[in-house]
Design goal:
With 209 residues, the chain is an alpha/beta fold. It has 2 domains: 12-146, D-Maltodextrin-Binding Protein, domain 2 (3-Layer(aba) Sandwich); 152-207, D-Maltodextrin-Binding Protein, domain 2. The protein has 6 helices and 9 strands, in the order E-E-H-E-H-E-H-E-E-H-E-H-E-H-E. A 5-stranded mixed β-sheet has the order 3-2-4-1-5. It has a 4-stranded mixed β-sheet with strand order 6-9-7-8. The radius of gyration is 18 Å and the shape is globular.
Length: 209
């Protein structure tokens, strides 16, 4: 399995992996499952497939990767729990989708005005390396990645704070508090449900976080 321009410190995707221990000689390929909530056509979905292909290539087929993009095995909010429970070996998700599970790391999602995804990614990884929060002791963290400044996309123009008051805004995790502070109505849901929610009128605006 980040933030911004005065709106939100965006959080990041986090990739988690349970420790895998091989015992004795392995006669058949080691099988590893990888769940990714991004659809196959999305760049993160494509990168997930490329990762699986590269693992199999570099191990000469001794490791067999089974890839589940688009939430085909588990939904984004279920990812962390599914890894801990052994439903999937590797998962790409967002810290904010597991609200309350990562209290120390929520500090990274505060609206601190990160200038870019690169800066935010460096900060989240440095934070983890320095503090090693116990909330992640049940899994093996492979990497953290963050995106650039967050934006709000809406059907109607938002030029002042008055324009956003009462507007239903798709968000998640800590950004729920930011949306409330702006006077809007937070509607929590993972990113992959946002397009349909806007199309059906469940929300009037989307936060890109």
């Amino acid at each position: 399995m980040t933030s911004k321009t005065g709106f939100i410190a965006s959080l990041l995707s986090i990739v988690l992996l349970l420790s895998l221990t091989a015992t004795g000689a392995v006669a058949k390929p080691i099988e590893i499952s990888f769940s990714n909530f991004f659809p196959p056509s999305h760049i993160h979905g494509q990168l997930g497939q490329a990762y699986c292909d590269e693992i199999e290539k570099r191990t000469d087929g001794k490791v067999k990767m089974t890839y589940y993009p688009g939430g085909s095995l588990i939904t984004a909010p279920q990812t962390y729990g599914a890894i801990v429970d052994g439903i999937t070996d590797i998962g790409l998700s967002v810290l904010g989708y597991s609200r309350g599970v990562f209290p120390a790391l929520e500090a990274i999602d505060l609206p601190m005005g990160y200038k870019s995804g690169t800066q935010a990614t460096k900060i989240i990884n440095a934070f983890y390396e320095k503090f090693q929060p116990q909330e992640l002791n049940k899994v093996k963290v492979m990497l953290f990645t963050a995106h650039g400044p967050g934006l709000i996309h809406s059907k109607d123009p938002i030029r002042t704070l008055e324009d956003i008051k009462g507007m239903k805004v798709r968000c998640y995790g800590f950004s729920v508090k930011v949306v409330e502070a702006l006077g809007a109505v937070p509607v929590a849901m993972p990113q992959n449900q946002a397009y349909e929610a806007l199309q059906k009128g469940v929300v009037s605006a989307l936060s890109s976080l």
